[in-house]
Amino acid sequence: MNKEKVCIVPFTKKEIPLLTCTPDRYEISSIVSAGMELKWKDISFLTNRRKLGFTASTDWRKGIQECDTVIITDIGTEKERRLGNFLCEVIGQALSNKKKVICFAELEKTREQEFKTLAQQNGSTFTYSCKPYEKQEKTRFEKIRFQAPVICLGEMTQECDGYEISLKLMKRLKQDNLRGIIISENKYNVLYEHQYFSQFYNGNGLEHSVEEVKALINGIEEEEKPDVIILKLPWPMTALDHSITYDYGVHAFIISQAVHADYCIYCGLSEMFSEDFISNINEHFKHKFGYSIDAFHISKQIMDIVYEPQEKAETIYIPLNKVDEEARTMRKKTGNMVYQLLNENEFELFYQGLKKELFDFSYGRI
C-alpha cells in the first residue's frame, strides 16, 4: 500500500502519539514548529524520552512541497492572532499547491468555507475535523447490553500518556487479529480507521448525559462490531488536590454509570505511587465508579513544585530509566500490575496479562 506523505503543522508535544503510533495509511515526511525553540532538535526532547528520529523544522514551504497531505494540528488560536494568520497562510499555500489539508484547529465559519472553495477550485480536498461523532437516538431507559469487553483508561492529570497508550493498545490488539476501537475526546482519532472522536458530556444534566453516553457507545458498537472497546476518559478521574480539582471526576462518573468497565488502566505521575496510595485509590474507585483498577501506568512526569497552583497541574519530565525502576519496584512490593507502558518490554508484559484477563479462556465471555 502506497502511503501518503504527511507534513504536521505546527507540532507540539500533543502530537507525539502520531509519531509513535502513526496511522497505517500515512508516512510522516516532516514536522514544522511555529517557533525557533524546536528547530533542528529531535522532537523527543519535548518529553525527555528516547530519540524518535524526527527533527523539527521551521521551513513550512519545503514541508508542503515534499508531502501529499498537510495536517493542521489541534491548537488554540483565540489568544494568538499571529498564529491564526500563520495557519491560514499555510492552509492557503497547501491548497494552492494541490495538497490535501486536514485541519484540526478551530476556524471561523467564513474561513472554513473559503478553504473549501479554494480546494474545489484547485482540485484538492480540505477536511475540517472539529465536529464530534453524532450521538445515536435511543429511547430513554431502553435496555442496552454491550457485547464487547470495555477497557477504561483514565488519568491522574491531563496528558498523562493516556492517549498514546490507547493507540499502542489498539495497534497491539491488531497484531493478534483483535479489533479494538478507541472512543475519546481526542480529535486525532479521525486519522485512524474505525476510531471515534466524541464528546461525552454536554452539560445537559447527569441523568440525561448517562443515557446519551450509553446510546453513543452502543451505536458505535452496533456499527463496528469490535472485539474490544477502549474508552479514553476525557478528564482526570479525581481532583488532584484542594487547589487543582479539574471537574471532580464528574465526566468519569457519568461514563461509569453508562458503561461498566471490564478492565481499568490508571495513569499517574511518578513519585506519587506508594502501597497506601494504590490501596486507597482502588477502594475509592470501587465505591465511586463500581470497578477497581487492573493496571497502573507510571508516567515519567513529576509535579513541578516551582509553579503556583493553577487550574491544571504543571509537570516536568524525568529520564525513563528512573521510572522503569520505580514501576518494577512497586510491582514487586505491592503485587499489583504497575508498569511504565511507554517501555516496550513493560508494555508487552502488561498486554499479555490484559489479554489473558479478557480473552484467553475456553468457556467464552460471560
Describe this structure in words.
By secondary structure, the chain is of the alpha/beta class. Helices cover 35% and strands 17% of the residues. It has ten helices and 15 strands. The chain has helices spanning 16-20, 60-65, 81-96, 109-122, 162-175, 206-224, 250-258, 275-289, 320-334, 344-358, and strands spanning 4-9, 26-32, 56-57, 69-72, 100-103, 126-128, 150-155, 180-184, 196-197, 228-232, 263-268, 295-298, 301-303, 315-317, 338-339. α8 (275-289) links the parallel β11 (263-268) and β12. α3 runs parallel beside α4 and α6 (206-224) crosses α7 (250-258). The longest helix has 19 residues, at 206-224. The chain is globular and about 60 Å long. The chain starts with a strand and ends in an 8-residue tail after the last helix. The model has no long low-confidence stretch (mean pLDDT 87).
**What is the mean pLDDT?**
87
Number of strands: 15
Say what oligomer this is.
single chain
Strand fraction equals 15-25%
Structural class category: alpha/beta
Strand order, biggest sheet?
9-8-10-7-11-12-15
How many H/I helical runs? 10
String of helices and strands: EHEEHEHEHEEHEEHEHEHEEEHEH
**Whole-angstrom Rg:** 21 Å
Topology of this structure?
Layout: E1 4-9, H1 16-20, E2 26-32, E3 56-57, H2 60-65, E4 69-72, H3 81-96, E5 100-103, H4 109-122, E6 126-128, E7 150-155, H5 162-175, E8 180-184, E9 196-197, H6 206-224, E10 228-232, H7 250-258, E11 263-268, H8 275-289, E12 295-298, E13 301-303, E14 315-317, H9 320-334, E15 338-339, H10 344-358
Parallel strand pairs: 1-2, 1-4, 2-3, 4-5, 5-6, 7-10, 7-11, 8-9, 8-10, 11-12, 12-15
Antiparallel strand pairs: 13-14
Helix pairs in contact: 3-4, 6-7
